[in-house]
Amino acid sequence: MVPRLQIALILRWTACAGLALLITLDISPLATSAQDPEVRKAIPDNDNSALISEGVGHILAAQEGENRAEWPYEGVYRVGGQIPIGYRIGGTAICAMALVQAPDYQKDEARLLAVERAVKFIVEASRDPLMGPEYDGGYDVRGWGYTYGLTFLLRARSLEAIPAALSDQVEVAIKFFIDAIQKTEISEVGGWNYARGKGRDAVSPPSPFMTAPTLQAMFEAKAAGFEVDGDVVKRALDALERSRTPTGSFRYSGIDGDKSRESVPGSIGRMAASETTLFLAGRSSQANIRSAVDAFIVHWSWLDKRRAQEGTHAAPYGIAPYYFYYAHYYAAQAVELLPEHERQEYRRRIRELLMSVRLPGGTWNDRVFERSSNYGTAMALMALTMPQTPRPAEWKE
User: Fold this and answer.
1) What's the rounded Cα separation, in Å, for the pair 84 and 247?
2) Domain extents for the chain?
3) Per-residue model confidence as pLDDT tens digits over 256-279
4) In this structure, how many other beta carbons lie within 10 angstroms of the beta carbon of residue 46?
5) β-strand 5-11 against 21-27: which pairing, if any?
6) Could you tell me the sign of the dihedral formed by the alpha carbons of 242, 221, 152, 378, in that order?
7) Alpha carbons 301 and 296: distance in angstroms, whole number
8) How far apart are CA 221 and CA 153, in angstroms?
9) Backbone dihedral region of 190: left (phi > 0), alpha (psi from -120 to 50 degrees) or beta?
10) CATH number for the domain whose boundaries are 5-388
11) Under 8 Å CB-to-CB from 183, ≥6 apart: which residues?
């Protein structure tokens, strides 16, 4: 039987709340656990080494493709019946980043070789015609390749994990991703969205879900010495800030008057990512970040109801399964920007939630596709190792 957990949630003064209240909630966030309790008890509460070792082993074994060089992210969307190249680059980048950031990377020959293959794939795949900034199609997932391809290459570069033979090609790929991100911003409004109408000139409202991580990638690029268009970043920050509602939630897409899926339970998958990104640019506060993480914990069960389910957005809050591990990753990132004395308890809670949905075999998966356990496991491992991850780059306007 899963014990009930008591949370003291403090709603502090923020731009989104006018009263300081103490609310005690009695919830059972582990009630939908997919993990055998006996297996869960076998891992000490303060030991991540076994979790990381099993997760890394799964990711290594799952590398696929003609040269065993990639980890495609699998969703319902296809191009010509195949997983689109943006998903292939994005998924590969996320899995490779998890391998690089796990402890003792430089001592692990299997990981070194796997990441070298992944870097080569990302560089070569960036030249695919379907990754070009000019695109006539509708639903558009190139941006996930741009954002996470850039994020990974910059992270690997900073950790000196780029094979010397590929360093020049990596520099070219980084500049390509930056340029493509800038060319695919939503005209006039700013920001980015993967859901768009057909046609080269189609305009869709910006999505915080995509805009926040893309901005973080651009912050990292600037900090690494690459040229970044400050006007593009400013427009995206404006759009992200304007998508915040009076309740502290962030709209699914759009700004100002667009109220699509704006409730807090439906927004917790993107609140932490959005507040963290705005904070890094001097446009949010630790109080707002704390409120976003509190909301993630309190309303976590609504995310869990959609984990590994069919379909995408479902009532009552319009939550899609692919928010699940994305939300854990950015909640963990947000915790590390809180005052140091607050972090340990939040880390414990996020770890507890991750442990509650850890699958037999030491993996995590928020989709109905077996392949997407690569992505879920990578995101979970990076959430667990977030305290050891370099602080994200700030943006000075």
Assistant:
1) 36
2) 5-388
3) 655 545 789 999 999 999 999 999
4) 7
5) antiparallel
6) negative
7) 9
8) 10
9) left
10) 1.50.10.20
11) 133
